[in-house]
Amino acid sequence: MTVLLSIVWFLIIISVIVVVHEFGHFIFAKIFKTRVEEFSIGFGPALFKIPGKETTFRFNIVPLGGYVRLAGEEVLEEGYEDTDPALFYNKKPFQKFLIAFAGPLFSFLLGYFLFVGIAGVYGFPEVIVERVGKDSIAAQAGLEPGDIIKKANSEYVFNPSILEMEIASGKPLDLTVIRNGEEVAVTLNPELTNKRAIFTLQGIEDTESLNLKNKQIVSLNGEEDLYIVMSRLESGDPIEIQLEDGTIIEGKLSQYSYFPPTYETGIVYATFSNVIANGNNVFQEGDKIIEINGISITNGSDLQNVIYLTQLNSGELMFAVSAKEIINEYKPFTANTLALLIERNGQIININLPKKEFLDFIVQPGVLEVPYENWHPKGVEALTVPIQWANNLISLTFRSFGQLFTGRMSADQIAGPVGAAAIIGQAAMVGFDAILNLTALITISLGVFNLIPIPGLDGGRIVFSIYEMITRKRVSPKVEAIVNTIGFLFLIFLMIFVTYNDIMRFF
């Protein structure tokens, strides 16, 4: 049922986004009296066609995109001299530019429209400080748990990730914080962290007797620079860690994550609570998890830490390292059954549950209540605030694609059709507001992606148009056709690559 729901919502969302994008091309082509031969939704063989006076509306079997085919758009012959003014080939460069740009423009407009509707109906989630690190920049600046971060440098904050990107720039941030109903000004000066890593080892004989927190690593496999050593290792390779007190830890590498130095402040944001939103045969709506295996649970961060422990198998050990100091450690629960204390209707009850059953339930989208309220912009801000949010997302998406092409972001972080369908399915489990937010994000991402100056995309055609405007010469039809073919083949390769990555994530 979940898979079917994902597919249905995926097809609905993609169809809406594609129709709006292609309608941008279509309407501007009509404005400049360009003949539109086909308006197509999907690729491959046609399911059915609707003939129009001038345009055939075509619905194809593979609903993963669409296109508008303009008369005179693909001219292969050098000496092409058809002077029909309805042909795209004969349009002025600025008209070609606007027809090509109209698709991304309408994608952005759909994003703006959706965010204005979301602001009016659902509002935007508050960004709440759940806790601050001990002796961190945030603690020194005076931030406290429960603070609502409303603005950063006079701009509204809609999402922790947006705030974190501003923090990552290293520049000072002037925050407007709501504390006990009153505004408080806080200035953050982000600090550059050390190199950091998270290790997961397996085959550890006695995890219970180990006490690693705040200890220094002297060597890893006999070498002092543990980060260089880890860059050469693969899952399953043997590891020997020597600590400053002489302790030696031996095992095999299970997982390893490296984090380069970045600017941080020590804020932990409230993203989910320890209260059940959607129950099952064990939990009821409103149940508050207050203890697991003797560990007190007061918020989402506490619950997240216990989830880490629950995910570890016997003999596994996970720990985080900053420079050479172990700053946190996670040991597996020895028993396969968890002992939970639940507060239900003012009463404390005990629940014993297998680890797997607990994990399968707790990681589902929408299972836990969110620990914040939504706020609704009023007056003029009901329009300006969602537009600012959309602008932030457009800027963030451009920066993300920039990091992709400069190598700062891995290509396997991109989601293709399979990954998008899974994400949409998760959003559907959360609620309709999550679906709308995701639709707005996808349409904005589509608009930005199409502006990348790659032949075969709108950005490639925009580049040709700008060239013609500057040089006042037409691009050779043969050259343009060859370049577009190369670009199209690249896009097919990219689609295969991201789809492969999507499928591999399931394994």
Fold and architecture overview:
The chain is globular, with a radius of gyration of 27 Å. β7 (173-179) and β8 (182-188) form a beta hairpin. It contains 12 helices and 22 strands. The strands form 6 sheets. Strands 4, 5, 6, 7, 8 and 15 form a 6-stranded antiparallel beta sheet that branches. A 6-stranded antiparallel beta sheet has the order 11-12-13-10-18-19. The protein is an alpha+beta fold and 507 residues long. The model has no long low-confidence stretch (mean pLDDT 83). Helix content is 40%, strand content 26%. The chain has helices spanning 2-31, 93-121, 137-141, 160-168, 226-232, 300-311, 355-362, 381-406, 417-430, 432-451, 458-471, 477-505, and strands spanning 36-51, 56-70, 124-125, 127-132, 148-152, 155-156, 173-179, 182-188, 191-192, 196-202, 217-220, 238-243, 248-259, 263-264, 267-269, 288-292, 295-296, 317-322, 325-330, 337-344, 347-354, 374-375. The chain has 3 domains: 3-12 and 77-120 and 434-506, no CATH class; 125-192, Pdz3 Domain; 194-262 and 271-371, no CATH class. The longest helix is centred in the first third of the chain and has 30 residues, at 2-31. One of its GO terms (biological process) is proteolysis. This is Regulator of sigma E protease. The chain crosses the membrane at residues 6-28, 97-124, 434-452, 481-500.
Write a brief caption for the model.
The two termini are 20 Å apart. A hairpin with a 4-residue loop joins strand 1 and strand 2 (56-70). The chain is of the alpha+beta class.
Keywords:
6-stranded antiparallel beta sheet, single chain, alpha+beta, Pdz3 Domain, 507 residues, globular, 26% strand
